[in-house]
Amino acid sequence: MTSPSERHARAARIVRYLKRTYPKPKSELKYTTSFQFVVSVVLSAQCTDKLVNKVTGPLFKKYKTPKDFAKADLQTFTKEISNVSFFRNKAKHIIAAAKIVAAPPPGGFGGKVPKDAGLLQKLPGVGYKTAHVILGELFDAWEGIPTDTHVKRFARKFDLTDHTDLKKISKDLEALVPKKDWKYVNNGLVLYGRYICKAYTHDCSQHPLTRTWPPAKDRWPRTL
Fold it and tell me: From CA 170, how far away is CA 189, in angstroms rounded?
């Protein structure tokens, strides 16, 4: 059984690399307005950023503000995002969330994306991971570590958690990593997984993070 001290030391080595390699966390999702970013993150669930950007290119020329999305025709909007996974549910969630954000207080947020994880998670389609991605990107506020498929894969590959539930993995990582460094974990592991150590089984023994803990080369956890 892995001891907490071993996991802390391993996490520290990983974070040192991520801070050095990806010093300025920034999403690869493209957007102009704050609510467009919210939409992009919702669309990105179990979907690649590359595909989301392809879908939102024309979409964001038509819809810019929360009010624009709130007024969208559900049938039309569903068709417009039909290339992403779970597009029917995502369409419903986005329009419903837009109506809440666009509405005046106290029932809504007056057209502004809230700078609060709890309030964000009251929006349809926004969970712990999505809320903290939004906070980090839009407000440079890092109150949690978002866990997506990349973060889950590396947390398990490097034996930093015993869990498979995304929120429980987030909590394990938050206990291992000092809060001042939370900002580097999600973005860094996403980019590392996207461009260096991809999910299919391969020889990763010479990859930078694997060299910090060689047993990882033989660990290929399920990503879903």
Answer: 13
| Sequence-distant (≥ 6) Cβ neighbours of residue 115 within 8 angstroms | 135, 138, 139, 141
Spell out the domain ranges in the chain. Answer: 1-219
CATH H superfamily, domain 1-219: Hypothetical protein; domain 2 (1.10.340.30)
Regarding pTM above 0.85, the answer is yes
The pair of structure tokens assigned to 177 is 């990593």
Residue 98, pLDDT above cutoff 80? yes
Q: Angle 13-17-22 (CA atoms, 0-180°, nearest 5)?
A: 145
Eight-class DSSP state of 201: -
CA 79 to CA 140: how far, in whole Å? 33
Distance CA 183, CA 133 (A): 10
Q: So what's the pLDDT on residue 224?
A: 62
Say if residues 58 and 27 touch (Cβ distance below 8 Å). no
Q: Assess contact for 102 and 67: CB atoms under 8 A.
A: yes
CA–CA distance, 190 with 195 (Å, rounded to integer): 9
pLDDT, tens digit, 9 for 90 and up, residues 22-35 = 999 999 999 999 99
Cis peptide before 106 (omega within 30 of 0): yes
Q: pLDDT (tens digit, 9 = 90+) per residue, 155-185?
A: 999 999 999 999 999 999 999 999 999 999 9
